[in-house]
Design brief:
The complex is a heterodimer of chains A (414) and B (158). Chain A has 414 residues and is an alpha/beta fold. Chain A has helices at 12-17, 44-56, 67-87, 101-115, 135-144, 161-168, 191-200, 212-215, 220-223, 248-253, 288-304, 306-325, 352-360, 374-380, 396-413, and strands at residues 25-26, 29-30, 32-33, 95-98, 122-126, 147-151, 173-179, 204-208, 227-231, 242-246, 264-267, 272-274, 330-333, 342-347, 364-365, 367-369, 385-389. Chain A has 15 helices and 17 strands. In chain A, the strands form five sheets. Chain A has a seven-stranded mixed beta sheet, with helices on both faces. In chain A, a hairpin with a 2-residue loop joins strand 1 (25-26) and strand 2 (29-30). Chain B has 158 residues and is α+β, with helices and mostly antiparallel strands. Chain B is built from five helices and four strands. Chain B has a four-stranded mixed beta sheet, covered by helices on one side. In chain B, strand 1 and strand 2 form a beta hairpin. Classes of the chains: A alpha/beta (414), B alpha+beta (158). Chain A binds chain B through residues 350-354, 357-358, 360-362, 368-370, 374, 377, 383-384, 404, 407-409, 411-413, and chain B through 1, 3, 5, 7, 9-10, 12-14, 19, 44-47, 68-72, 131, 134, 137.
């Protein structure tokens, strides 16, 4: 089994030293944190950037004429530039700062959904979406007469492309809203193919990139996407900040979502006019410190480089699949060819919660449950799975600890 | 990992009593004749339970359940069914409150002598207090039971 990674591209010990929390012990055992897909740990540079701002350079943004406000505005707005560069956006004004991926998708469902899509049109999602890419569209369906279509997945956990294309064929689909990487199955969807099919049938495409952006270099222009949503806290940044990237001409067609300060051009009792994009979508005092933290996180990711991160992750995933598939009674859920470092599994008749608790007892953190993807669980015929997910700081030894831990759990349940 | 590897560290929560009741529950059946029933649902983790109650005069004569969930919730439902048999409604509710304290804190020092014996039977579940996310697994069947006694159809764990 080839588990070698190129030490010249990713120095795992140096990276682990960047994350203070990794030296913690849990229940008397060294922490083995395999729940990064839920939320990733934070490197020292992110922590320091946020603390440093609070200690030395903090005021409200976009409105002050004083030194502190101007410096804080610069530091906060640097997050927008960093996000634009990270995704290869055409322009910084295409980066709308939101609260998280859920916020990004709700903004899109509300604003593009009600403002641009017409009743009778359809939104097409897939059978492996997170609730955050299902429920906003259901709400749109019920409020605005939009049809909600679901493209099925195959037994291997891949998008059924023939069915996907068939659902586009009548030309009613105005928007395809689909995951770029499943948070349950690890499946990476064929984004370029999705875009070309959708565009050929007159539909725009939004990707839920919450997982994908952690593992792959995202180039929205190369993908040809129309919208791309992601969140900071899975990318080693703080909670409470997310991104909705959209093509400028589309963002300009969209009405505002929240009204308030910061999003206006002028206000009279009779009529208000909106600020230019992206600010018309950013009412109220934003998550200033989180923006500063996100900028530090993006810089951190860029300093390591996606190439090295992806190679490390591929090696971890290969190692994990090899180790876990040798455990009797363990079934890996999702067999996609193109997959990332998120692995769901069930262990014999043991309930996923019991598996997770017994792993936790050994210091190993995994997630268990329906992973906010109940319809996918129904499709799989399961109530829940346990899920191990990897980050840039995950080691091959930690995967060995998981495999050994699972062997003990199996033995324990007999 | 060898067969001689000690698994003792895993037993603080999953004591033998719990493993036994989860593998071979004695009361995991729908009652054909019943006076009350209610479902319990924990949407956060997907655990589901339905409880059936047959009264014997003023007391709980028999409890049966069907559970789809983890070992903790099945064992808790089974121990509950065993323990509430022969108790009045008020007594059962008091026991539930005591059990909830036990599950949340690991003990119930103010629960009084009257509940000492039934609480002792539920004591193997006290270990859940070390795992706050699992407390609701243990209490879900009780919520369903209380809902049945109160004549409501649905309960969800706190």
């Amino acid at each position: 089994m080839n588990v070698a990674i190129n030490p010249a591209t990713l120095d795992i010990e140096r990276i682990r030293a960047d994350f203070p929390i990794l030296t913690q012990t849990v229940r008397g055992k060294p922490l083995v944190f395999l729940d990064s897909a839920a939320s990733a740990q934070k490197p020292r540079v992110v922590i320091d950037a946020m603390v440093n701002a609070m200690e030395t350079q903090y005021a409200n943004v976009h409105r002050g004429l004083h030194w502190m406000s101007e410096r804080t505005t610069e530091a906060y707005e640097a997050a927008r530039d960093a996000a634009a560069a990270l995704m290869n956006a055409n322009d910084r004004s295409e980066i709308v700062i939101t609260g998280n991926s859920t916020g990004s998708m709700n903004l899109l469902a509300h604003s593009y959904g009600r403002g641009v899509l017409k009743p009778g049109q359809a939104v097409l999602i897939s059978g492996m979406e997170h609730h955050s890419n299902i429920v906003p569209w259901q709400m749109l369906r019920d409020a605005h007469g939009i049809e909600l279509r679901v493209a099925p997945i195959t037994d291997a956990g891949e998008l059924d492309m023939a069915a996907f294309e068939a659902l586009l064929e009548d030309g009613k689909v105005g928007l395809v809203a689909i995951t770029h990487m499943s948070n349950v199955l690890g499946t990476v969807t064929p984004a370029e193919r999705i875009v070309s099919l959708a565009h050929a049938h007159g539909a725009k495409v939004m990707f839920d990139g919450s997982q994908a952006i952690v593992h792959r270099k995202i180039d929205v222009q190369a993908l040809g996407a129309d919208f791309y949503a992601w969140t900071g806290h899975k990318l080693y940044g703080p909670t409470g900040i997310g991104i909705l990237w959209g093509r400028k001409e589309l963002l300009e067609q969209m009405p505002p979502f929240f009204g308030g300060g910061d999003m206006i051009s002028s206000v009279t009792y009779k009529k208000s006019t909106w600020a230019a994009v992206p600010h018309k979508f950013e009412a109220g005092t934003p998550a200033i410190l989180e923006g500063i933290g996100l900028k530090a996180a993006i810089d951190y990711v860029q300093s390591i480089g996606y190439e090295a991160m992806a190679a490390h992750e591929a090696s971890l995933t290969e190692h994990a699949l090899a180790r876990l598939s040798k455990i009797p009674d363990l079934r890996i859920i999702g067999q996609a060819q193109d997959r990332g470092g998120v692995i769901s599994f069930v262990l014999g008749k043991a309930h996923a919660h019991d598996v997770a608790t017994l792993l936790d007892r050994q210091g190993i953190a995994v997630r268990a449950g329906h992973h906010c993807a109940e319809p996918l669980m129904h499709r799989l015929g399961l109530d829940s799975t346990a899920r191990a997910s990897f980050g840039v700081y995950t080691t091959h030894n930690e995967i060995d600890a998981l495999a050994d831990g699972l062997v003990r759990v199996r033995e324990f349940f007999g | 990992m060898t067969q001689t590897d000690s698994l003792d560290d895993l037993r603080d929560l999953y004591q033998d009593v719990i493993l036994d009741h989860s593998r071979r529950p004695r009361h995991a059946q729908r009652l054909e004749a019943f006076d009350a029933t209610a479902k319990g649902d924990n949407p956060m983790c997907g655990d589901r339970v339905q409880v059936w109650v047959k009264y014997d005069g003023d007391t709980v004569g028999r409890v049966g359940f069907e559970a789809r969930g983890c070992a903790i919730s099945v064992a808790s439902a089974d121990l509950m069914a065993e323990t509430v048999q022969g108790r009045g409604k008020a007594d059962t509710k008091a026991l539930f409150e005591a059990f909830r304290t036990l599950a949340r804190t690991g003990a119930c020092p103010d629960c009084g002598q009257a509940l000492a014996e039934p609480l002792e039977r539920l004591a193997p579940l006290a270990g859940v207090h070390e795992y706050p996310s699992r407390v609701k697994c243990a209490t879900l069947p009780w919520h369903a039971l209380i809902a049945a006694l109160d004549g409501t159809k649905e309960a969800s764990s706190e």
